[in-house]
Amino acid sequence: MEIKISLKAPGKNQIWIIDDVTKLNSIPDLSKAESDYATKSINADQSVITLNRYGGFIFIAFLKNKNSEWQLAESCRKAGATIEPLCNSNKLPDVTITNRTSFLSAAVHLAEGLALSNYQFLKYKSDAAKTTNSLNKILFSKDSATVKEAARLQATIDAVYKARTLVNEPLSFLTAEQLSKEIAQMGKEAGFKVTVLNKARITKEKMGGLLAVNKGSIQPPTFTIMEYTPKKPLNKKPIVLVGKGIVFDTGGLTLKPTPNSMDKMKSDMGGAAVVSAAMYAIAKMQLPVHVIALIPATDNRPGQEAYVPGDVIKMYSGKTVEVLNTDAEGRMVLADALHWAKRYEPELVMDFATLTGAAAAAIGNNGVVCMGNAPDNVKQSLRKSGFNQYERLVEFPMWDEYGDLIKSTIADIKNVGGPYGGSITAGKFLEHFTDYNWMHFDISGTAFSGAKKGYQPVGGTAYGLRMLLDFLVNYGKA
Asked: Is the pTM of the predicted complex or chain greater than 0.70?
């Protein structure tokens, strides 16, 4: 989807954003009948009004007063999501957005909701040509957005689309090796370095967690390293991103019951999708931040020589883990990646993972569970970015008592902590492999959606990606 500034007058298909009925007068050539209809609709609490004209459409988005800027932004995104199906059902190829409100970024946020809602995954549809959305271009009229805003929005939307598509791809295509190839292609397109470690190198490095999970698979694992280095980075030491890359999770020998548990497990690499697509956007935006990203990838199956409950695994760090549940595999592969991150002496490490059903059970699909030991100013910035992008964060405690739940009688730690506080004990497990400023984001409740919700589609959502980009765009700013 193309997003750009138009230097011409709005085309025949237009979106006007207003926050006062009197501003209907600013819409050119609006007839009295159209103005009366729009006024009546607004007074009836309708937020989007459609005017079907000969040869074109006018959509009026009425922006109501909100308590905060982030709520205003979300109202604009939702308006965009409402207008998207109207555009496509009427076969509109493009639309021009004009902002006539005091909220200066209203047009950008509406375009964001419109573009996010317009995503489709039709690769495996035989009738794709017939069902492809007609809308393929969003324009801004002069003074409704800046060139920089449009460029950043384009990079963000492209990244979200890539992340969603990665999550939507089935294992029949997206093996661990194919995931590394897809990431390498993103690196070529955006301009960041990609290095892929194969099974032989992973074995040489003694990444015990990743190798243990992979033992049940006929497909080899990969460990993908990405690096974006700007000319004058703001950070003296790199920020490291880590993404869980379990391309399919059967639960291993601790097999998941079906239905409704295993059938969506192609999405268990949602963290890898968020992190790799973030690298794409970071490079496209040319952000002045040195960032490294790590993706440990494999599928988790009960075949071959699959590791079993009761096994003790020596991890890449040298710590030993008693495996009590092979369905707690994400933390096993993340632990090796988190230990690998130590070699960079990072300024901050952030991992993203569909790690626990407990996180989803706790807060549902309306936010992300997070935890970690990052400084308060970093946590505050992350929370702010979460609100800015409406990908909100809920911080869970990491009290020492939760660590007691994963103590093992025969190894250093065990990989599950019992029926209570599951998302926190998973975080405490990961904490064992860190000695730096670190934040963990459990996106299990948000990475995949079974139904369309506003601008979130069915399938992969890329939830958390826009929050992460917002944080990095504003990194180092007061």
From this structure: yes
